[in-house]
Specification:
Length: 287
């Protein structure tokens, strides 16, 4: 079972999140007061864009980042309807926002700058699990004054996750990034793989080079990557994906190509990746 939001999936427990009663540390810092509903909101990077475009009303959205329409942005179609704002101090001040949402945009000094000018900020932290994503949905929707929208989204995500079959025997798998790196425990991709009924063969926390020796000794049944075309064509000359061992596994193993927009930033659509992996894993097990 997915231990989301204090291990309870009742509407009452979700409501507690929006009242500030939580079971863990918050990953997003709520800037504006609970009584103020912001009406001039700007998101300044493509990760923050996803949350504003999903949880904000059109009348609240003053602007989104230039990357909001990129191919790796899940909400790129909706983003086309809004002004594109560069995360520079001058441009932000000129637009007079009453709330800024950011993940990484604007550089390390932007938070202090905005604070000095008394502009509220929602800082979205590093999200390494679906639990963190639901917590962030709660925080952002509350800050935007759209609590009910956030509650409904969290409830829907829980229902969908509970519908994913929990298979005891998980297929051994490896995630491959075009840069020649992979991921282990403590990352969102690892959590997505695990909840999709895959057993990540990499036990090294965080991101690391693709372990060629583990490819040979542990032999993953499934390769997961986030390139819809040929993975090797999106790689540098010296990437480990060009190694003969890696090529052999890419040719012989079942590959799951997750659309880049589902893993570029952690958000509600990360569950789409879980469901996709789960479907392929079941088909692989049957055959």
């Amino acid at each position: 079972m997915f231990p989301l939001l204090c291990n309870n999936i009742t509407r009452v427990s979700y409501a507690l999140i929006f009242l500030g009663i939580t079971c863990g540390s918050l990953k997003a810092e709520t800037g504006p007061s609970a009584k103020h509903v912001p009406q001039r909101v700007i998101s300044i990077d493509y990760c923050a864009d996803q949350y504003l475009l999903k949880l904000g009303t059109s009348s609240q959205i003053l602007g989104v980042s230039p990357k909001s329409v990129a191919s790796f942005s899940f909400m790129r179609e909706k983003a086309k309807n809004f002004n594109k704002v560069r995360p520079t101090p001058e441009e932000l001040l000129a637009l007079k926002p009453d709330l800024i949402i950011r993940s990484f945009g604007g550089g390390i000094s932007i938070n202090k700058f905005l604070s000095d000018h008394k502009i509220p900020i929602i800082q979205i932290g590093f999200l390494d699990s679906l639990e963190d994503i639901n917590q962030t949905i709660a925080n952002v929707s509350k800050a935007l004054g759209n609590d009910e929208l956030g509650i409904a989204l969290v409830e829907d995500l829980n229902r969908r996750l509970l519908a994913v079959p929990n298979i005891k025997t998980k297929s051994p798998a490896l995630y491959m990034a075009a840069g020649g790196v992979t991921t282990g425990k403590g990352t969102l991709v690892h959590d997505i793989m695990s909840k999709g009924n895959l057993r990540n063969i990499v036990d090294t926390p965080g991101w690391s080079d693709i372990p060629l020796e583990q490819l040979v000794s542990l032999r993953p049944d499934i390769i997961v990557h986030s390139y819809l075309g040929d993975l090797t064509k999106n790689s540098g000359k010296w990437s480990a994906v060009h190694h003969p061992v890696t090529k052999r596994f890419l040719e012989s193993n079942t590959a799951i190509a997750i659309p880049p927009a589902l893993v570029s930033c952690g958000a509600w659509y990360s569950l789409d990746a879980v469901e996709m992996i789960s479907r392929v894993q079941r088909e692989y097990t049957i055959h």
